[in-house]
Amino acid sequence: MLEEILKSIVEMEEEEAVKKAKEYLDGGGDPQKLLEVCRDAMGEVGSRFEKGEYFLSELILGGEIFRQIMEFTLPKLQSGSVKKIGKIVLGTVKEDVHNIGKDIFKVFAEASGFEVIDLGIDTPEEKFVEAVKEHKPDIVGMSCLITAGVTSMKKTVDKLKEAGLRDSVKIIIGGGRVDESVKEFAGADAWADDAAKGVRLCKQLIGVEG
Amino acid sequence: MKSPEELAKERMRRIEAAVNLEEPDRVPFSGVGGDVIAAYAGITQEEFCFDYKKAKEAIVKFNRDFPCDWTFAAGFVGVGVPPLTYAFADDPDVSATVGMAMFGTIHDITGDVCTRYPGREIESNCSPQFIGGKFMEVEEYDDLIENPVKFIAEVIIPRICRNMNTPRKAMAAMIRLGIEAEKIKSFAMEVGMELAKLGYPSIPITLGYTPLDLIGDGLRDELNLILDLRRYPDKVRKACEALVEPILKVGLALKPLGIKYAFIPLHLNEYLSPELYNEFYWPYLKEVIMGFAKEGIKSFVFFEGRHDAHLETILELPKGWGIAYFEKTDVRKAKEILKGHTCVMGGVPISLIVSGTPEKIDSYVKELLEEVKPGGGYILATSVGIAPKETPVENIKALIEAVEKYGKY
Question: Which of B32, B141, B144, B273 yields a CA-CA distance of 20 to 30 A from B346?
Answer without folding.
Answer: B273
